[in-house]
């Protein structure tokens, strides 16, 4: 228990240090390119544990995703404290972009590209290695990756505009692009509700912050769906189970409805979209009132 407490305290310090450098670095940028930095909430947002020993106090508070006309069987907070010490991401999108569409995710650090891949593209003063939808290039003493559905020339521009501040990636977005969020790649917290009924089999919802989810969307195949409360939604296999329909209730906050049991198809995607469209976002206090079970485990929702 002492080790978890110490890790949480150091994690809060790491997040706070990065937020401070983000605000300083983003000051000259137009406000539309740099969302306001999140401030810590003194109240617990999920786990029911004292806020002084949880990661929640270093993140903007959020609740969960509830499905109308269905009763959840269980509520779960999955907490991944080590995520703040691993790779971090910057989500960049074109002005007409949305979750998993017309954008890119910069991740740092990542492994170097395989030696047998010699498709080199210039990234500022260095060469990067390009493969389908991504570029890996040396940055600082390690490597970074930019992955998205944009032309390789634009990905190279975003890569060239990336620098490292206090060990975290920072991007000065090109014209017609904006930074949506800066966060750990893995979601430090995931709030999940599980429903044991419905045509899809086991149905569940999730809510969390972490650029790795969108990065995995670009690494796989997505289907553009309709809107959920005016936010464009996408269907994919990211998030576990047979499939998910995901959207952003607010910039950088990913919500999804997933299922396990029925095979991924146009029909199951449409059913999940209807559930998402009938859902509502719970406040942090409403989430806490559900008395979610707290589990410390890696939040490997995505496998880029």
Q: What does this entry look like structurally?
A:
- The protein has helices spanning 2-26, 152-160, 212-219, 266-277, 284-289, and strands at 65-67, 74-79, 88-98, 101-110, 120-123, 126-131, 134-139, 142-148, 162-165, 168-171, 177-184, 189-195, 201-208, 223-228, 231-236, 243-250, 253-261, 279-281, 293-296.
- It has five helices and 19 strands.
- Helix content is 20%, strand content 39%.
- The protein starts with a helix and ends in an 8-residue tail after the last strand.
- The protein is globular.
- The strands form four sheets. An eight-stranded mixed β-sheet has the order 14-15-16-17-13-12-2-19, covered by helices on one side. A seven-stranded antiparallel β-sheet has the order 5-6-7-8-4-3-11, with helices on both faces.
- By secondary structure, it is of the alpha+beta class.
